[in-house]
Amino acid sequence: MIELQSLSAGYGGRDVIHDVTLSFPPGRVLALLGPNGCGKSTLLRAALGLGGKSGGEVLMDGVPLESLSPRQRALKAAYLPQSRSTPNITARKMVLHGRFPYLSYPRRYRREDYEAADRALDWADARDVAHCPMGELSGGQRQKVYLAMALAQEAPTLLMDEPTTFLDVGHQLEVMAAARRLAAESRAVVIVLHDLPLALRGADDAALLCGGRLAVHGTTEEVYASGELDRAFGVALGRMETDSGWQYYYH
């Protein structure tokens, strides 16, 4: 489990997040919410040791992040950033990059690596483009391949920064369904979303960043009831109960 203890981080000598204490427990989907520029991406990167930390501590399974090697960190947490480069390789080879933490040098893929990559492509609904060059894929197709690469890492914690970008509504729902299946396997899933109704409907917990500080954290029910989402985003959220549970909407 990843734990942030009074974490401050930023870039260019300026903190973007301040004194954030938050944990990512296994078996839960946490929606990380907040207006643009509030520090969501900075928080995820600092939680993985990718730079920016200026204060506080990050623990991975109770061990300080700084005492773990990059490989040890990668075995504990996978990361899907907002954007990535598009190398001139096939989608399946891209997904196989998620297996790097398990390989020694020189890298030689084993049968279990190919099997893990194919499972991840199936999960991400991207098996049909497995042998297509990355440069020939649409933005939505590439996003699904990057998601598959993160899944192929098979880490107990998965951090996803706006994974629904470029995806239509149906595939956005599939990403959330995949997050729920991963949580059912006792993995911790953290997902940055801008679609508040999708986040409240699909996640177990939510954390709202405002001005780089943690404004509210709790179950989605608790965060909705706090009214902080309305204040942070300048919207009015409503909900109605249906046979499939609460449905959230803007009004």
Structure description:
The protein is an alpha/beta fold and 251 residues long. The protein has one domain: P-loop containing nucleotide triphosphate hydrolases (Rossmann fold, 3-Layer(aba) Sandwich), CATH 3.40.50.300. The chain is 33% helix and 30% strand. It has nine helices and twelve strands. The chain has helices spanning 40-47, 70-76, 91-96, 111-123, 139-152, 169-184, 196-202, 220-226, 228-233, and strands at 2-11, 14-24, 29-33, 53-60, 63-64, 77-80, 157-161, 188-192, 205-210, 213-219, 237-242, 245-250. The strands form three sheets. Strands 6-7-8-3-9-10 form a six-stranded mixed sheet, with helices on both faces. The protein has a four-stranded antiparallel sheet with strand order 2-1-4-5, covered by helices on one side. Helix 4 crosses helix 5. The longest helix is centred in the last third of the chain and has 16 residues, at 169-184. The chain is globular and about 50 Å long. The N and C termini lie far apart (37 Å).
Mean pLDDT: 92
Distance between the termini: 37 Å
**Looking at CATH, which topology would you report?**
Rossmann fold
Strand content is: 25-35%
Largest sheet: 6 strands, mixed
The tally of helices reads 9
Number of strands: 12
User: Helix and strand string, N-terminal first?
Assistant: EEEHEEHEHHHEHEHEEHHEE
- Rg is 18 Å
Query: Number of folding domains?
Result: 1
- Per CATH, the superfamily is P-loop containing nucleotide triphosphate hydrolases
Strands of the largest sheet, in order across it? Answer: 6-7-8-3-9-10
**Helicity range of the residues?**
25-40%
